[in-house]
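Title: Comparing notes on inverse folding

I've been comparing how different people in this forum approach sequence design from structure. To keep things fair, I'm posting one structure and asking everyone to reply with a full sequence. Here's the target:
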């Protein structure tokens, strides 16, 4: 009986040890605020991007049935200039085929929010870029899903962490700009990107109210 109890205690100890190791491993994979700031604070130049046009191009290309499509490995990126921007690639976990963020990714989203209000990043606006790895879904479905996921991250940053919506531009690229073109089905291609895009536009100074015109002097009464 004592021996059996010892085995149970040993089993519990091993289970607790594994749980602690798993927790430590998770903690190590969560980025720090400084990790994110370090990736994003090297802004040089704003690329010329028409976002409404880019969204339309993504959907049109994703829906097209091109006879000579080069395939996912050789498919050219749809917005190559974005690759020149400072980037932080985040492994955000979502429920399958939805924009619902899984609880284990809440900490990462919070760290992103902390980074965006860091003094060195406050002068900038950012892109939230959604991607999806090549899978059994259609490219059109993945383009829509990537946009919904980028929108979901934007909404959390704005509504929960009070980041100004003027500083965030979500864009979903689906399968049209793989992060690892050599391995289209790799989970790396499902990562979400935060890109430093431009400087926050300076607000025009308010014009001071015009001084009221001096009251006209009344003529002196004659005695």
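Reply #1:
Here's my take.
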């Amino acid at each position: 009986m004592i021996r059996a109890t010892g085995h149970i205690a040993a089993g519990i100890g091993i289970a607790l040890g594994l749980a602690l190791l798993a927790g430590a491993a998770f903690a190590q994979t969560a980025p720090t605020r400084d990790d994110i700031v370090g990736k994003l604070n090297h802004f040089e130049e704003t690329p010329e991007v028409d976002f409404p046009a880019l969204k339309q191009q993504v959907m049109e290309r994703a829906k097209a049935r091109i006879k000579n499509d080069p395939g996912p490995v050789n498919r050219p990126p749809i917005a190559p200039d974005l690759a020149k921007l400072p980037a932080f690639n985040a492994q955000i976990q979502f429920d399958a085929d939805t924009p619902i963020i899984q609880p284990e990714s809440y900490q990462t989203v919070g760290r992103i929010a902390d980074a965006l209000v860091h003094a060195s990043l406050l002068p900038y606006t950012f892109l939230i870029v959604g991607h999806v790895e090549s899978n059994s879904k259609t490219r059109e479905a993945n383009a829509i899903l990537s946009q919904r996921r980028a929108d979901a991250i934007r909404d959390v940053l704005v509504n929960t962490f009070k980041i100004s919506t003027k500083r965030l531009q979500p864009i979903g690229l689906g399968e049209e700009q793989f992060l690892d073109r050599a391995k289209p089905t790799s989970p790396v291609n499902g990562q979400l990107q935060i890109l430093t895009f431009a400087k926050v536009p300076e607000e025009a100074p308010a014009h001071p109210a015009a001084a009221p015109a001096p009251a006209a002097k009344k003529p002196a009464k004659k005695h």
